[in-house]
């Protein structure tokens, strides 16, 4: 079986354009559903983040009115998986050669730190060059923006991908005051962004890149990756 690396943000605060601080963290379903699918298929999962910092849980993902009736199970699974893994790996020390896939879950954290993390950029560039699978869901595709070369060319330009849409950001109430909107930025950088109905499962595969639009797309992304690994 294969080893899979889940790269988490280290951000707990998303600074808004008015200077206010919006609490953020990992979105439980986006971490738990892929982890569960990978482990069920017999794969080993490691966790890493910038500096090895354990990001807090986004409390919205524990609210049934926001995250659905199954959110308590996702929270419990995510917390157990992180607790059993122990201290997160430091992203700067990760050797991608030992992994078959890299997964980037969301929460708003990736738009705070991962989108410009040079260590992640090098890791993703090496992973893509080696044909390893890369998965990103919801705001996770922001982390793909880190993969730029010395001339500023983005590795994933012209690739098809899904991500949290501008419409969903507006419906969630976080579009106004956001420093930038993810789907719009991806398009500006040259991605071929595909979107489905708000908050409904929608997934896109482009070669070794697997993306999902929102939390509801997390499990399907992982299922598609497991199939490809098999």
TrEMBL record:
Biological process terms in GO annotation: methylglyoxal catabolic process to D-lactate via S-lactoyl-glutathione
Domain DJ-1/PfpI per the UniProt entry, residue ranges: 29-226
GO molecular function terms noted in the UniProt entry: glyoxalase III activity; transferase activity
One cellular component (GO) term of this entry: cytoplasm
Keyword tags: Glutamine amidotransferase, Transferase
UniProt superkingdom: Bacteria
Pfam families: DJ-1_PfpI
InterPro entries, per the entry: Class_I_gatase-like (IPR029062), DJ-1/PfpI (IPR002818), Prot/Nucl_acid_deglycase (IPR050325)
SUPFAM superfamilies linked: Class I glutamine amidotransferase-like
Protein name: Type 1 glutamine amidotransferase domain-containing protein
